[in-house]
């Protein structure tokens, strides 16, 4: 973890400088302030996929996505208590990419913590990432909430250590969305044992928020929208009254409720993946509650990308998706129905129909 603190004067100065050139998504001014002493907010940026070309050249569009998310996060009012980065900071796990990404994240005016993504990991098995950002799984307490970060993108030892002739090939095989040479993600026994011990210290009525890169549920194995030992992790979380899982990796808005656990995916700043059903023609590949967003503009390079502002209220979260040049979305836990719901589009009649192109 890197910690960045600057004095208030410098903060205001930077804010003014960025504000002059930036168009803020409306939701930044519409957010309601916490109404009890327990409420707080944090921000979530994910899947920047910083990609090195050669020398000092990087893919410009991915850089812009992260730079903009960092700048807008710095302008938030109320200020978030901290920022999470949800994994896949790099595209192919190189030092150049991780250094360049870390440099951009260092511009955040808040403390931030990172989640490991498969694009960060499979070149050197997380070695350089850990030098920059610290442990790959950890927990901490903040204002009465128990937070946990897992490295959920591990896989079988044989695949990781024996199958590929080089580290670079291993990285490339795991980097593809639909590559049949990939291998299912998992948390693994070692971390599950750690999690069990970690949770043993936590009271059952304490809200638990878990961050992972892959979903701790099984959505679509063909694209590794998947965690092989999801049920075993869910079982460890089952005794707790309020559990939230926030995950990256899928580059799209998804949400779901399984037993006591609310699941929310975060958007990427780099690019959107399609919804599994659009390719696989199988509705069961999307979490049951998810309302897919209309994203019909392939000529706008930031379409269907974004970052998140999260309001933590009384044990549950409201996730505000900040989409560039698009209608922002809010998915919040509804205590009446006991599940996350889209504040504007959950009802069928209110959904935006897909655009037609001629
Ligand atoms: Fe990603
Ligand atoms: Fe990923």
Bound ligand species: fe (ii) ion
* Poorly predicted spans: 1-35
The proportion of residues in beta strands is: 15-25%
**Total strand segments:** 15
The ordered string of helix (H) and strand (E) elements is: HHEEEHEHEHHEEHHHEHEEEHEEEE
Helix fraction bin:
25-40%
Distance between the termini: 49 Å
- Strand order in space, largest sheet: 5-4-1-12-13-14-15
Characterize the biggest β-sheet.
7 strands, mixed
> SS-based structural class?
alpha/beta
The total count of helices amounts to 11
Q: Could you tell me the mean pLDDT?
A: 88
General form: globular
Radius of gyration: 19 Å
Write the layout of secondary structure elements.
Elements: H1 8-19, H2 27-30, E1 40-45, E2 52-54, E3 57-58, H3 60-74, E4 83-85, H4 95-105, E5 112-114, H5 118-121, H6 127-133, E6 138-142, E7 145-149, H7 157-161, H8 167-175, H9 189-200, E8 208-212, H10 230-237, E9 243-247, E10 255-258, E11 261-265, H11 276-280, E12 306-313, E13 316-323, E14 329-334, E15 339-342
Parallel strand pairs: 1-4, 4-5, 7-8, 8-9, 9-11
Antiparallel strand pairs: 1-12, 2-3, 6-7, 10-11, 12-13, 13-14, 14-15
Bound molecules: fe (ii) ion (FE2) (2 copies).
One fe (ii) ion (FE2) binds next to helix 5.
């Amino acid at each position: 973890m890197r910690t960045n603190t600057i004095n208030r004067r410098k903060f205001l100065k930077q804010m003014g400088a960025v504000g002059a050139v930036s168009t803020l998504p409306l939701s930044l001014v519409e957010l309601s302030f916490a109404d009890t002493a327990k409420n707080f907010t944090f921000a979530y940026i994910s899947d920047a996929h910083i990609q090195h070309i050669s020398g000092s050249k990087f893919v410009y569009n991915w850089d812009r996505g992260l730079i903009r998310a960092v700048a807008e996060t710095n302008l938030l009012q109320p200020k978030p208590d901290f920022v999470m980065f949800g994994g896949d900071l790099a595209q192919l796990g190189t030092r150049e990419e991780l250094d360049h990404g870390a440099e951009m994240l260092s511009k955040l005016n808040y403390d931030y913590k990172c989640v490991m993504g498969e694009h960060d990991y499979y070149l050197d098995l997380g070695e350089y990432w850990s030098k920059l950002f610290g442990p790959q799984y950890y927990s901490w307490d903040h204002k009465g909430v128990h937070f946990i970060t897992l490295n959920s993108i591990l896989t079988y030892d044989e695949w990781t250590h024996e199958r590929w002739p080089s580290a670079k090939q291993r990285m490339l095989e795991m980097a593809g969305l639909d590559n049949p040479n990939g291998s299912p993600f998992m948390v693994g026994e070692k971390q599950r044992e750690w999690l069990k011990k970690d949770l043993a210290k936590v009271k059952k009525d304490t809200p638990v928020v878990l961050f992972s890169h892959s979903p701790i549920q099984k959505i679509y194995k063909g694209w590794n929208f998947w965690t092989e030992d999801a049920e075993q992790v869910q079982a460890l979380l089952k005794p707790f009254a309020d559990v939230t899982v926030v995950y990256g990796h899928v580059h799209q808005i998804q949400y779901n409720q399984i037993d006591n656990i609310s699941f929310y995916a975060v958007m990427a700043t780099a690019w959107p993946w399609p919804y599994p059903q659009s390719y696989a023609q199988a509705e069961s590949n999307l979490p049951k509650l998810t309302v897919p967003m209309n994203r019909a503009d392939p000529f706008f390079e930031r379409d269907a990308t974004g970052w998140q502002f999260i309001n933590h209220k009384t044990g549950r979260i409201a996730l505000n998706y900040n989409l560039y040049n698009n209608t922002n979305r809010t998915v919040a836990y509804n205590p009446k129905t006991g599940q996350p719901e889209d504040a504007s589009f959950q009802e069928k009649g209110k959904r935006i129909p897909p655009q037609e192109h001629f």
